[in-house]
């Protein structure tokens, strides 16, 4: 027996919902009416949601327009699919009557018909337009009925004909007995001659409401007119006139020369021009001259207006034609410092593959597997030319490394811009394709040239031969500075020998009682008496032993303790130390000149300092309690030990109670004391006669050994830091006027570089993937600032007589690109279009007009002058005109409750005209009572 199962209640509910969903209302008799109902339902939903909810629910921003969004839905009718879009903005001042009729941020339909929000319904086809006339009319009628049913005043448009014509038909319910209809079309070629002039356009508009085809030029029809004329300068890379020289043929039978051949690049004197030539980011300018609304009564007035000068326009605004190479979408296409720094970072990543630089160029060693086959070594001729520029084509004067450097430049541990290694890194960016093999070959030849300078006793170019080694720079720069000093001292020793004059006298110092030092001359054969450790022990062990050597004048015997004894000549003395005296001789204690006070003081690089500290710690020579007068801390007072050092000092300074009662501590007086041994073994010579602490031959060879054995990664990490610093310092020399925002961008770049490049200063032979990503991001930031500097320089040159415009245009461009740097999140309120029109003030018009140089007869781009309103011989590249006609309508035509007899002016006709002598677009809006 078969079992019978019951249908679950959930299944019954689903069937019931399906029946209700497919229920047909008896009022919908046809598919066309159902189509109207679907449109109405969508429009009601959009009306109910409002602007804020539509934005929250995912309204799409129209990227090419400012403050314009859209929502869309798909519809079907008669086996065809349509897409209905609703365009709206967050502000209600878009369009007509708000002073921005000519804004480039307006949609074509907003500009053509003066509407704010609107609907567009179009077929989902390849063309996106309705090609059949009856279909377009029926489609527009369905939308109009749906909008009327939900009391919506949105205008609706349907694209017709072909896409190139930008043709539309539209309709709008005005909320009264009146309906507004729209129609737009375009002529792409063979524009009638009459419509190229303002008279013919005026008559075309009048013909839309004139009652007969009478002679329109003989009748008066008052209409209102607004006009916008756009002029465009000749592109700067084409602004030259090709002229043949007299005679037609140049000397030696060559081809005729033109001005173009003698024309310098725009950035010829910019700091980066030594390394690359940048494309001018400003291709030209567009000038918009706007005539505000005025009443026109005849075609004769239109003829007079066509002959008017653009200087008579009420408003001027200018917009630069910025090259696409500066856009964010063109990353990697522009060749500049940023692009080469990217390649240098790739070489840094590859430098970990081997332990020796020579392995990248040697044929005996296999290359790294992931090294590209395109990584070629530049030919010897290229390397010779670069080395010649580095070592031989250099001014004799030593460079001033601090000149022109940014205040934040020293925060980056690299080499100064004008230094030898700084210039090496800049050249390395452009040698070959900046691959690791090209860099290795260049470095090997560079070190060979440095060694040649050392062996031939030639001065090391681009490096100072004196001064103190700057430990804030990279180690390679410190080594080269050390080598330059060694070469100079080696040369001086070979040329001059010991520093003594013909009479064999040396420079000494006469120490006066008031501790002043006076230069005198003493005989070289004078006696010297050395105070031994036992009798004269109250001195600091870090002082030169020669401070206890006296050279007395032999005019008579000098007794110890004689007051005149303090004025005797002491070689190597820097002056009397207060009122301190030696314990047994009762002589004033003198401080010595030490080695660090002399010109040949010990110079040490960063690694040498580290080695010295390690040696000191190993020998335990200096302890944590060391001070200048730490010997006094080892003095034990017999009378009152608890009074400490302060009383000892007081006793020492007292000349009436001498010597002080006490003794040296056990640590300092024990047999075999290290300080006693050093003191006794030290020769009694002043610092000036001691053996130099710096051996130039030995230290020079150490430097060369370091350069020749430097590991690839150690080289590349210093090159990356130096290259960023040097390129930034180069760009920082650019003259761009008083652009404060550009100055801020440069300061931010230096701080970002300093933070990011710290990963290369850890002295570790490893760089991880995250560090490489950070360096790549730094290149992106560098590219943005480099583009801004190029733009700022170009604007500054073009607006030197109008700096306000230069600053306004630059700030607008910079603010537009801030979101793309990641400093500001991109949201719905961010501008999508670089709307950079800047109003030109009255006093700046002459400067702008001078940019439009009169065209020459040989310029091929100008054939026929077919339009008026010439600016220095230039006709407008486009002309936009808005004709309007207003009528007074009685209040009884309206639904509103207006007082009896009230009349309101109403725009009944509007025609927008846009085009040139080669094309013409016309958009007509007519309000009528249907």
UniProtKB/TrEMBL annotation:
Which keywords accompany this UniProt record? Cytoplasm, GTPase activation
**Can you name the source organism?**
Nicotiana tabacum
Chief localization? cytoplasm
Localization in the cell: Cytoplasm
Q: Is the keyword Lipoprotein in the record? A: no
Query: What are this entry's molecular-function GO terms?
Result: GTPase activator activity
Instruction: Tell me the superkingdom of the source.
Output: Eukaryota
Cell cycle as a keyword of this entry, yes or no, is no
- Kindly state one GO CC term assigned in the UniProt record: cytoplasm
What is the protein's name according to its record? Answer: Rab3 GTPase-activating protein catalytic subunit
Q: Which family does it belong to?
A: Belongs to the Rab3-GAP catalytic subunit family.
């Amino acid at each position: 027996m078969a079992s019978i199962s019951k249908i679950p209640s959930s299944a019954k509910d689903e069937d019931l919902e399906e029946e209700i969903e497919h229920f047909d209302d008896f009022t919908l008799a046809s598919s066309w009416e159902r189509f109207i109902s679907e449109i109405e339902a969508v429009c009601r939903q959009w009306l109910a949601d409002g602007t804020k909810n539509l934005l929250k629910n995912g309204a799409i921003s129209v990227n090419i327009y400012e403050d314009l969004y859209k929502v869309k839905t798909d519809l079907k009718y008669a086996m065809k699919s349509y897409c209905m879009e609703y365009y709206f903005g967050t502000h209600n001042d878009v369009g007509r009557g708000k002073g921005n009729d000519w804004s480039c941020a307006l949609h074509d339909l907003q500009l053509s018909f003066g509407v704010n929000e609107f609907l567009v319904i179009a077929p989902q086809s390849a063309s996106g337009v309705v090609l059949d006339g009856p279909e377009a009319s029926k489609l527009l009628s369905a939308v109009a009925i749906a909008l009327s049913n939900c009391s919506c005043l949105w205008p609706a448009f349907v694209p017709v004909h072909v896409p190139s014509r930008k043709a539309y038909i539209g309709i709008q319910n005005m909320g009264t007995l009146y309906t507004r209809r729209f129609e737009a079309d375009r002529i792409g070629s063979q524009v009638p001659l009459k419509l190229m002039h303002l008279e013919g356009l005026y008559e075309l508009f009048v013909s839309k409401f004139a009652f007969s085809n009478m002679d329109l030029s003989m009748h008066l029809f008052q209409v209102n007119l607004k006009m916008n004329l756009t002029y465009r300068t000749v592109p700067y890379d084409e602004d030259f006139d090709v002229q043949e020289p007299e005679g037609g043929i140049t000397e030696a039978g060559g081809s005729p020369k033109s001005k173009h051949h003698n024309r310098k690049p725009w950035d010829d004197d910019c700091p980066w021009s030594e390394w690359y030539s940048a494309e001018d980011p400003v291709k030209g300018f567009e000038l918009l001259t706007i005539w505000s609304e005025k009443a026109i009564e005849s075609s004769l007035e239109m003829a007079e207006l066509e002959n008017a000068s653009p200087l008579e326009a009420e408003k001027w605004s200018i917009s630069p034609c910025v090259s696409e190479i500066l856009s964010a979408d063109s990353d990697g296409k522009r060749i500049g410092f940023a692009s080469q720094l990217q390649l240098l970072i790739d070489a840094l990543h590859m430098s970990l593959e081997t332990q020796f630089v020579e392995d990248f160029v040697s044929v005996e060693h296999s290359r790294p597997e992931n090294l590209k086959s395109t990584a070629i070594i530049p030919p010897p001729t290229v390397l010779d030319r670069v080395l010649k520029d580095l070592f031989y084509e250099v001014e004799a004067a030593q460079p001033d490394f601090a000149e022109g450097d940014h205040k934040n430049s020293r925060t980056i541990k690299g080499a100064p811009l004008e230094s030898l290694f700084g210039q090496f890194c800049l050249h390395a960016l452009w040698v070959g394709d900046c691959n690791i093999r090209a860099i290795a070959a260049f470095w090997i030849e560079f070190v060979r040239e440095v060694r040649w300078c050392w062996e031939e006793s030639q001065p090391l170019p681009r490096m100072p031969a004196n001064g103190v080694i700057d430990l804030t720079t990279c180690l390679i720069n410190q080594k080269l500075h050390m080598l330059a000093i060694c070469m100079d001292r080696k040369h001086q020793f070979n040329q001059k020998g010991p520093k003594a004059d013909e009479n064999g006298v040396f420079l000494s110092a006469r120490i006066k009682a008031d501790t002043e030092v006076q230069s005198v001359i003493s005989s070289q054969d004078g006696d010297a008496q050395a105070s031994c450790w036992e009798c004269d022990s109250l001195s600091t062990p870090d002082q030169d032993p020669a401070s206890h050597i006296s050279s007395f004048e032999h005019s008579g015997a000098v007794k110890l303790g004689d007051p005149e004894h303090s004025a005797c000549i002491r070689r190597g003395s820097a002056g009397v130390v207060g009122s301190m005296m030696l314990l047994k001789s009762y002589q004033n204690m003198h401080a010595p000149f030490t080695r660090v006070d002399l010109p040949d003081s010990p110079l040490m690089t960063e690694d040498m300092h580290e080695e010295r500290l390690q040696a000191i710690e190993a020998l335990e020579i200096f302890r944590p309690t060391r001070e200048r007068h730490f010997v006094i801390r080892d003095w034990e007072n017999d009378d009152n030990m608890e009074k400490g050092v302060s009383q000892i000092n007081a006793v020492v300074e007292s000349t009436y109670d001498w010597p002080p009662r006490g003794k040296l501590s056990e640590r300092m007086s024990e047999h075999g004391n290290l300080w006693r041994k050093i003191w006794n073994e030290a020769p009694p010579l002043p610092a000036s006669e001691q053996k130099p602490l710096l051996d130039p031959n030995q230290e020079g060879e150490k430097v060369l050994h370091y350069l020749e054995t430097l590991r690839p990664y150690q080289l590349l990490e210093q090159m990356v830091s130096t290259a960023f610093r040097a390129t930034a310092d180069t760009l920082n020399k650019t003259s761009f006027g008083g652009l404060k925002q550009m100055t801020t961008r440069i300061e931010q770049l230096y701080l970002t570089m300093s933070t990011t490049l710290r990963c290369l200063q850890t002295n570790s032979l490893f760089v991880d993937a995250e560090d490489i990503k950070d360096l790549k991001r730094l290149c992106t930031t560098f590219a943005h600032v480099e583009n801004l500097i190029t733009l700022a320089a170009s604007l500054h040159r073009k607006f030197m007589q109008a700096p306000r415009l230069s600053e306004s245009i630059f700030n607008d461009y910079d603010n537009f690109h801030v979101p793309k740097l990641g400093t500001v999140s991109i949201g719905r309120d961010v501008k999508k279009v670089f709307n950079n029109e800047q109003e030109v003030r009255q006093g700046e018009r002459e400067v702008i007009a001078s940019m439009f140089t009169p065209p020459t007869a040989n310029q091929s781009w100008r054939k026929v002058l077919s339009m008026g309103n010439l600016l220095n011989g230039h006709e407008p590249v486009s002309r936009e005109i808005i004709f309007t006609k207003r009528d007074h309508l009685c209040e009884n035509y309206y639904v509103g409750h207006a007082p009896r007899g009230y009349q309101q002016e109403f725009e009944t006709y509007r025609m927008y005209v846009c085009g040139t002598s080669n094309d013409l677009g016309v958009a007509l809006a007519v309000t009528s009572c249907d």
